[in-house]
Specification:
This protein is of the alpha/beta class. The chain has helices spanning about 1-25, 35-40, 80-85, 100-115, 140-145, 165-185, 195-205, 220-230, 245-255, 285-295, 300-315, 355-360, and strands at about 65-70, 90-100, 120, 150-160, 185-190, 210-215, 235, 260. The protein has an 8-stranded parallel beta sheet.
Length: about 350
């Protein structure tokens, strides 16, 4: 027993050191939009992801689905329209803008109405739950009725700052989980330094009855197994490319491809070699490459499978319409309007959206 305790202490120490290094790197966020766009344009990975010589049934111009972005963040104020307008021609077929606060929800709705390939999620991030009260909680439910809103989120627990206080975070996490059950909407979950409480609350709220993704998954294989056993998805982004991203690489190696969603959490957590700079959906080919290497499959396969996963989770039809599916019901997914693809072969807040509260320190 003493040996097991020592090994556990050692593992926890390694995890904290790994987390601290990621924090130090990601807090150097650069928001110089022109420089970022120049780097993107000059890198060969940011062509249209044209595939040649494939025989796996993939479209040659395979598309990527960014399941978690924050384009309402003020880091994009300088070139938001130019960047979002370029996504399709650069290989990003769809993206979901995730709200973090009530004002972020309103901005998200505006963006989804402007770009047909951009969808939204409505919810209040744990570090912004101090703004919630009985008088305004109904705004979340109203937003969920919007035709371009495909999920409730991001919601959860964040004990890194302990602000607002934990009981308040738990109260509104529980209320939003109840709303998810009431509406049947998929849930985008955030958990930071709160592994035990998050898992307990999710299970108490219905567990396997919920359809959910653990955004920016940062825990180990043991916790991954808990969520995968409930049928949840795990969000994987830039951290998979970090030299010290050992735990996430182990999780990706362990998990089935059918439960993996690609995400950026942009403008934060840019992959290597842009680590510390502003992130965007255009950087996802680096994540695709890392996942492909770990799983021993082609990049085209990663794009295809994760596209299908995202369609399934967000309940999107080939045309991009949102349907009132029952949890667990099979849906048809497509890359472009009208095109169907087969099943996978393998089973804070306020004016800067999530800002420093959600991304910089993750």
């Amino acid at each position: 027993e003493e040996k097991e305790k020592l090994e556990k202490i050692k593992e926890e120490k390694e995890e904290k050191e790994e987390f601290a290094e990621n924090v130090a790197e990601s807090t150097e966020l650069v928001v110089e939009a022109d420089d970022t766009m120049d780097e993107v344009q000059n890198d060969r990975l940011f062509c249209r992801c044209i595939r040649s010589g494939t025989n796996d049934g993939m479209r040659e111009d395979a598309m990527i689905f960014d399941t978690h972005a924050h384009y309402d963040d003020r880091a994009f104020d300088g070139d938001r329209e130019e960047l979002l307008g370029s996504l399709l021609e650069r290989g990003i077929g769809r993206a979901v803008n995730i709200a973090c606060s009530l004002s972020s929800i309103r901005r998200t709705l505006e963006l989804t109405e402007k770009y047909p390939y951009l969808y939204g999620a409505a919810g209040v991030h744990p570090t912004d739950t101090g703004e919630l009260g009985e008088e305004n909680f109904g705004e979340i439910g109203k937003a969920l009725a919007h035709p371009k809103v495909v999920a409730l989120g991001e919601i959860g627990l964040d004990y890194h700052w302990d602000a607002p206080e934990r009981p308040l975070q738990k109260k509104w996490f529980d209320r939003q989980l109840a709303l998810a059950r009431e509406t049947g909407m998929p849930v985008v979950l955030h958990s930071r330094d709160a592994a035990k409480d998050t898992l307990e609350m999710v299970k108490s709220a219905g567990g396997i009855e919920l359809s959910a993704v653990m955004h920016c998954f940062s825990y180990g294989v043991e916790l991954a197994r808990e969520y995968l056993d409930m049928g949840y998805y795990l969000g994987v982004g830039g951290v998979i490319t970090f030299a010290n991203g050992r735990r996430l690489k182990e999780v990706v190696s362990y998990m089935p491809m059918e439960r993996l969603l690609l995400e950026t959490d942009c403008p934060y957590l840019a992959p290597a070699p842009f680590r510390g700079k502003r992130n965007s959906s255009l950087n996802l080919p680096y994540v695709v490459r890392a996942v492909a290497e770990i799983k021993g499959i082609t990049e085209a396969e990663v794009e295809r499978i994760t596209w299908e996963n995202a369609c399934r989770f967000y309940r999107l039809s080939p045309e991009g319409e949102v349907h009132d599916w029952n949890v667990g019901e099979e849906r048809v997914c497509g890359r472009r309007s009208g095109e169907e693809v087969g099943d996978s072969e393998q089973h804070t807040g306020g004016d800067q959206a999530c800002g420093q509260r959600t991304g910089e320190e993750e």
